[in-house]
């Protein structure tokens, strides 16, 4: 499980941090580790555990004005992808777990999500608004291959001709191309594929259990060939790690068939600041302080910024440089292209659910 320097291979976070809602804390003591070694036991087997939960609702109203969505739903809480910078890590504390390793090793599975979604879409008071799958955690993370909750939800969206958007960094969406392409024919789906680096080694460190860069670009191409509008998220941009890759990333996205690109500047709010700092000191010790200082330069001297309108775009010299490069990329590679608005007009005809799936 561990390399010689103690780095946990295949994971983003390198430790669990204290849950802010708990008075007690968890500590892996040296005497316990020595005991395990003497007994030939493992103190930590690094396995992923799937835990079923039973929410009462699945569609959430999004209050943030920064993220560009009104409603979201998440089939899973926690995410095995293990992206070290993920803003969703903090939400795992509400479930009683750590935002660190727990976030990527204790995955909460909502098997009743398709039923709850259908109940929502059949509600007399519901009006069609695009619902974003993966507003918090990736709906195509490894758990989806086993549980197929996302696929079942897409079947519900198609049954009711309701618009849906997806955010993912996994090629598994290709498995559901039959449903995705059927939705696309009626302009009911848009897909956002996240690609943060063209360097596979960087990808493995930042996002250890995600699809490779090549597979993600291939996924963008396949979606585009099936008439599915794709936006590529160059997010987050981390100064000193991938900030020099904006133009190459944009060109690769355009060449694969994406209609648009977007970016955010990394911000390390809540427990993520401690988790990221610990990670970079182990994963990239030669540039750890440089990167952390440049992140602070984007957020008025802190690792994060909570101000609406500023927290995801950043400020200062580095953030302005990123915006300039994004503007240049759009002019060079995306001129004349536009990501379409999704169709909300069909839903009322299918709201009763009487019509067949295909």
UniProtKB/TrEMBL annotation:
Coiled coil ranges: none
One MF annotation (Gene Ontology) recorded for this entry: catalytic activity
Domain Radical SAM core: 65-310
Entries under Gene3D superfamilies matching the protein: 3.80.30.30
Pfam families: Radical_SAM
SUPFAM superfamilies assigned to the protein according to its UniProt record, in alphabetical order: Radical SAM enzymes (SSF102114)
The keyword Cell inner membrane is assigned to this record: no
Keywords noted in UniProt: Iron, Iron-sulfur, Metal-binding
Record flagged with keyword NAD: no
Matching InterPro entries: Elp3/MiaA/NifB-like_rSAM, MJ0683-like, rSAM, rSAM_sf
Protein name per the record: Radical SAM protein
Organism: Flavobacterium magnum
């Amino acid at each position: 499980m561990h390399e010689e320097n103690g780095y946990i291979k295949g994971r983003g976070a390198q430790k669990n941090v204290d849950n802010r809602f708990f008075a007690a804390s968890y500590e892996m003591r040296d005497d316990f580790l020595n005991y395990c070694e003497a007994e030939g036991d493992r103190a930590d087997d690094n396995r992923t555990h799937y835990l079923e939960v039973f929410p009462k609702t699945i569609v959430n109203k999004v209050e943030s004005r920064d993220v560009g969505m009104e409603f979201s739903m998440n089939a899973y809480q926690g995410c095995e992808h293990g992206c070290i910078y993920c803003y969703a890590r903090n939400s795992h504390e509400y479930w009683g777990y750590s935002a660190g390793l727990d976030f990527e090793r204790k995955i909460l599975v909502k098997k009743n999500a398709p039923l709850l979604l259908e109940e929502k879409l059949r509600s007399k008071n519901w009006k069609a608004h695009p619902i974003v799958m993966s507003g918090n955690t990736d709906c195509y993370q490894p758990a989806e291959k086993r549980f197929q909750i996302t696929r079942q939800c897409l079947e519900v969206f198609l049954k009711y001709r309701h618009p849906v958007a997806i955010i993912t960094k996994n090629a598994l969406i290709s498995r559901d191309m039959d449903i995705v392409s059927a939705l696309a024919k009626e302009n009911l789906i848009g897909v956002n594929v996240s690609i943060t680096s063209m360097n596979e080694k960087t990808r493995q460190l930042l996002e250890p259990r995600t699809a490779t860069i090549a597979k993600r670009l291939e996924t963008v191409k396949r979606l585009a060939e099936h008439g599915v509008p794709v936006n590529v998220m160059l997010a987050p941009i981390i100064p000193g790690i991938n900030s020099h890759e904006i133009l190459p990333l944009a060109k690769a996205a355009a060449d694969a068939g994406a209609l648009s690109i977007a970016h955010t500047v990394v911000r390390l709010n809540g427990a993520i600041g401690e988790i990221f700092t610990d990670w970079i000191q182990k994963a990239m010790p030669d540039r750890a302080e440089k990167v952390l200082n440049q992140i602070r330069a984007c957020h008025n001297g802190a690792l994060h910024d909570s101000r609406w309108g500023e927290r995801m775009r950043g400020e200062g010299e580095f953030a302005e440089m990123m915006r300039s490069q994004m503007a240049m990329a759009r002019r060079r590679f995306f001129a004349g292209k536009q990501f379409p608005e999704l169709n909300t007009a069909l839903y009322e005809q299918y709201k009763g659910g009487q019509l067949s799936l295909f």
